[in-house]
Write a structure and sequence with these properties.
The structure is a homodimer of 487-residue chains. Chain A has 487 residues and is α/β, with parallel strands linked by helices. The first copy, chain A, has 14 helices and 18 strands. Helices cover 31% and strands 23% of the residues of chain A. In chain A, helix 6 links the parallel strand 8 and strand 9. The longest helix of chain A is centred in the middle third of the chain and has 17 residues. Chains A and B meet through helix 4, strand 6, strand 7, helix 5 and helix 6 of A and helix 4, strand 6, strand 7, helix 5 and helix 6 of B. Strand 7 of chain A pairs antiparallel with strand 7 of chain B.
Chain lengths: 487, 487
Amino acid sequence: MSSTGTANTRIPVTLIPGDGIGPECVGSARRILEAAGAPIEWEECQAGAEVFKRGLPSGVPPETMDSITRTRVALKGPLETPVGFGEKSANVTLRKLFETYANVRPVREMPGVKTPYSGRGVDLVIVRENVEDLYAGIEYAQTPGVAECLKLISVKGCEKIARFAFEYARSEGRASVACATKANIMKMTEGTLKRVFEEVAPDYPDIESWHVIIDNCAHQLVKRPEQFGVIVTTNMNGDIISDLSSALIGGLGYAPSANIGNEIAIFEAVHGSAPKYAGKDVINPTAVILSAVMMLRYLELFEQADAIEHAIGVTLESGVLTGDVMGYDKGTPTTVYTDAIISNLGKRSETWTVREHTPLKLPKLAPEADYVRPATRAVVGLDVFIESPFSATELGASLMELTADTKLSLKMVSSRGTKVFPPTGAITDTLDHWRARFIIRENPGDLPDDDVHELLQRISSRHRWMHIEKLQEFDGELGFTRDQGEN
Amino acid sequence: MSSTGTANTRIPVTLIPGDGIGPECVGSARRILEAAGAPIEWEECQAGAEVFKRGLPSGVPPETMDSITRTRVALKGPLETPVGFGEKSANVTLRKLFETYANVRPVREMPGVKTPYSGRGVDLVIVRENVEDLYAGIEYAQTPGVAECLKLISVKGCEKIARFAFEYARSEGRASVACATKANIMKMTEGTLKRVFEEVAPDYPDIESWHVIIDNCAHQLVKRPEQFGVIVTTNMNGDIISDLSSALIGGLGYAPSANIGNEIAIFEAVHGSAPKYAGKDVINPTAVILSAVMMLRYLELFEQADAIEHAIGVTLESGVLTGDVMGYDKGTPTTVYTDAIISNLGKRSETWTVREHTPLKLPKLAPEADYVRPATRAVVGLDVFIESPFSATELGASLMELTADTKLSLKMVSSRGTKVFPPTGAITDTLDHWRARFIIRENPGDLPDDDVHELLQRISSRHRWMHIEKLQEFDGELGFTRDQGEN
């Protein structure tokens, strides 16, 4: 976060117009920020479709990376990932390469924009973890017919996002933070965010906090969204509930976002590049303008941010609305809408309250890689994932025979989380994908790798395996879950 | 599916009253079904809190399992999993042990129940895959500070649920099936459902079909829910969007569900056991009654199902509403509401259209375990997950040295899906959890397990690993994803 926002020094910001309607949205925001007297020095850079077509598979050229590394702040339009040019989305690339771990998505009822929720004062912020979880995109075809994706969640990542959510709430004077997870089903991964959130909460006694199961959170967001202030959640859950929430207030045309890390912040609308509306002067630039307002506050240019927010409020109250809400034949053109906001700078909205903001304090955590240090630890067994056309009983018998004289004994075989050997009487439609769980036969202790290698060689002699997980204990607690039917 | 629903033979059904408000809901449904003349022989069985307290960790006693195995159909109330008694939810246990792979959640605007969506005719069904995905609950503490959950998706599981969704749409005369996935981020797991859905769709030319990204689906469900007929989706996504959807029509009091497998079907309300309302004659039993209506249709007792649906419509139209919508001080008591429905049997609702139903055909897939058979396959490398306090550069150098004279060479080291060695210039907050990717140095072909064992022994000599994945190719296609920054 920069604190150099005085009238004399201009703050450098990387500006990425982006694809499709991006240049119109970003152009509108830039004109408004300049008219509001925000002391910004724009560095215009490229990313997206044109860059992919030049043959760069990331969609982000080195000069854009350099600019962001230097300015540490970017305002960007939507980027396209043209089919057949890039494997990864350029939007995701930017977020990941700069470790912008917090995705911030404010959702607030706009004056004059009619929705089924109008008049209820929806005003919430989704804080979504932006780096970990299924979004790491680590996938394997484990058998020809079974694929796996790894959901990875770290204590450190959870502490960063939980503290960030509380700090963000404080910076906006918000009264509450809810944590939304699926900890009841995924006790170790989703459960980590719940546990860390509850550990961190007492550091913020001024803010009310509670946990809500993610599916109930989605239900409550539709039923009574006004109950929420800030909601913090994991990456994939956050993806779904933030898009859900933006529909409560009139759609993506009013959905700004920020991707904030401890080094770099990127501000952007949530919507896509909508090529069919590009260049027609019909699109709603409010989402990018509101993203720019978030950026001004991040830069501690509070006065200009407040002025623009009021001007947007006055403009919408006066019934000046774009085609996305009015119909594209009747909407105010983008440029006219922008002019209206500029002409309303200095006026104060009657109905729209601008929150009082204070500088956002980013959480600084200890830099150690081994952030969590258990007093005791041990390897107590091994899960081996096997591809086999055998039945559960045949496979179980074969594995028992193969490993009879090793240090490890077969505890069970399971199929997608349900124990099938020894048989339980369950009706399970098994595939050729099995998990065999081995535990130390006697004298539990730390299993040496030599015994692991021995076991693998035995299994390899007769079966095809593709995945192994060591079963560990940390501070005497099991570091693995039991299966359905396993005792 | 049974077809023995004639007037002379009674169909045996397992009845589980459940916990909290369960017995009142189930009792209401039972009275209504009996009054409607449904030829059912109830076998009342236990499951839930009392069973956990008797010391059975599954919450489901053998006699209940036996009854369901025999009757193949169950109607159940909500079950509690008391804290400290059971590790797994008894609700989930029943679904998993009987391979009820399809969770069906109809969501329809009810007459007289006011919501922000009233009058728009919301009438959709979420078909959620019920067995696979993150819900298998397979988790590992991989390092003291990093946890992993496995998301497993099979081609066969996807084909079953995709075909089920189309068959279900047909049985209700619905015009469309949308498939909601996150295939753009998880191409192998979520992508499997999208691909299989698109392969299966041409078998149902009478039904319109399309794919929608899950976050956009959540957005559209709030913005324009009336556009959807049937939505088919994976387990975790389905959990969130089905609870989202039930809020569109007045909440969980009106949310029935079915868990259907090829052998067994379990019908239940979505809501919990709400102990604070138990025994007070104030709760809304409609969700269980509507679940029982779904059960009647599954049993092909269409006439009784239609009669009850009409009677519910007439009752709600007449303004007889329970405490969940009226306020618990003003609502119609559960028993009075039930009496009203019974007294309205035989009347036809003016505003509520009962769909014409035909028998549901369950998809029968080939029973082979190796459901997908590639013509060619090969192991081309290995991902080894390592716990290390080293920096990325130190770890990378050490691994290169250790494996210099093996068949495999280090391609990269990554941290939660982002490549960090060889360095890319990205800002990545690394942990002590790394993934090292090794590929066959030359002459790509099928890597023998001996070389895998050799590599592991080398790594074990200096580093702590906890997870291995073989990198495979099937029919010449990569069976693994590339990381952010990996080319």
